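Bug report (template v2)

What were you trying to do?
Predict the complex of my protein with nicotinamide-adenine-dinucleotide.

What happened?
Run completed; filing so the output is reviewed.

Input:
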Amino acid sequence: MASTTDYKIDFTTFYNVINNELKSTPTTRTAINPSTLAPLPPVPVSTKSDVDAAVSAAKAAFPSWRDTPVDERSALIDTFADAIRANFMEFASLLALEGKPPMAAQFEVDFAIKHLKGTAQLRLEEEVVEDTEEKLVKVRYTPLGVGVGIVPFNYPVFLGLGKLGPAVLAGNAFIWKPSPYTPNTALKLVELAAKIFPPGVVQALSGEEDLGPWLTAHPDIRKISFTGSTPTGKKVMAACASTLKRVTLELGGNDAAIVCEDVDLAQVVPKVALGAFNNAGQLCVDIKRIFVHEKIYDQFLAGMVEAVKTFKFGGSDDTEGAFFPPVQNAMQFEKVKEMFAQIKKEGWKPAIGGEVEAEAGEKKGYYFKPTIIDNPPEESRIVQEEPFGPILPVLKWNGDEDEVVRMANNTDMGLGASVWSSDLERAERIAKRLEAGSLWINTHQDLHANVPFGGFKQSGMGHDWGIIGLKGWCNTQSLLLRRSGGII
Ligand code: NAD
């Protein structure tokens, strides 16, 4: 076993990783640190021939990786997780430059390492459907071949590793395509992976917006696991249809939290507030609509305002314990600004915030004052759309469970949802009627490597993680062994 010093890498120059070699490209691009607006070190802009090279290396690697015993594949994933840990501060500092205060970046890298280790524990067993004198019938799961993970900007390490782990554990060769807004950490992670996995098993390609479509169109790629916005997810699915690639789509969310009147406010308010403003609203399973029982609405809202006042926002150079980042990029900044502009236009009532901080000149980066909108109309944009920024509606419900379930389900999205109550039976009764892939009671965003994650309705299709997630990286194959009798 190699020592952790074998896993030290240089964090200054950035390459594609193809067949375990570091490859430059004729042109490069730079992402921007959203807290300082300074450019990050340049990264490759892949060409079509880079895509072909990576796909043929993955194809060549696949048969022997598929035939490698799963315990060996798992051990390499575990070693990879340890190797990331050996470079923990370097990865966290680089991730901070991509848009988070150091404390949040460290949280993400730590969470991702644990998730990867959890994934390595999973096993997809053959299932015996029938074992009789006449026949043995089994269902088995075989890897698909070359798979691609297309990753968004908001949790670039966790979401990328969250695809890599299950893909390679199941026996696939995996290509990681990071977001053009956050390519640096991903490239370094795969550079490290190249020291551990056989050539062609784990690769990375960075590029411009044409890279994703090249991958979804490529005839030798068998699966795209996509995480990103719902409109892009629809394009990915349409593009994959031409080659009948398997697709997993992890898309946008508009998570509801239903708060009952019997909660312990001192305990629940800070949790709900954190669940709503985590990563400044840029998390698919951030709480994006809160429905509070009218009996406690005023107290709850006042508590939320106090909780939000304690939240420290900061960037990569923060030294004061900030946990909340700016909005990650200029495109998202414009989208969120547009939502903030509706406050005046629509006459929404901010309980706190309401301003675009960057415009007030207080901070240079893409900062907003965290904002809570007090009881806006149910059909308003802030309730119906995913802002993906630090602006949150809080609404009232009147104690009628049917009505609050209707309100929570009144959206095209269906990613996560939570119910908060000290009556667990009641909470479960309400939760089970919600149209969302992940239901939580007295918690939210509680994600685990052994729990499947995926959306209802336009929040996605298929799952990452858990045994169901592993099955998504496989063909389902039946095997019937005839012992006697039979139809031919
Ligand atoms: P996005 O859809 O703009 O981009 C996601 C990725 O897709 C990027 O890597 C991008 O380069 C790539 N891409 C863009 N166009 C493509 C195309 N035509 N073909 C193939 N790839 C293409 O998403 P984003 O703005 O980076 O991320 C924010 C969104 O992601 C939010 O809606 C959020 O809710 C969602 N999200 C969902 C989950 C989940 O697990 N369900 C997790 C995180 C984020």
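What did the reviewer find?
The two ends are 53 Å apart (CA to CA). The CA atoms of residues 260 and 421 lie 5 Å apart.
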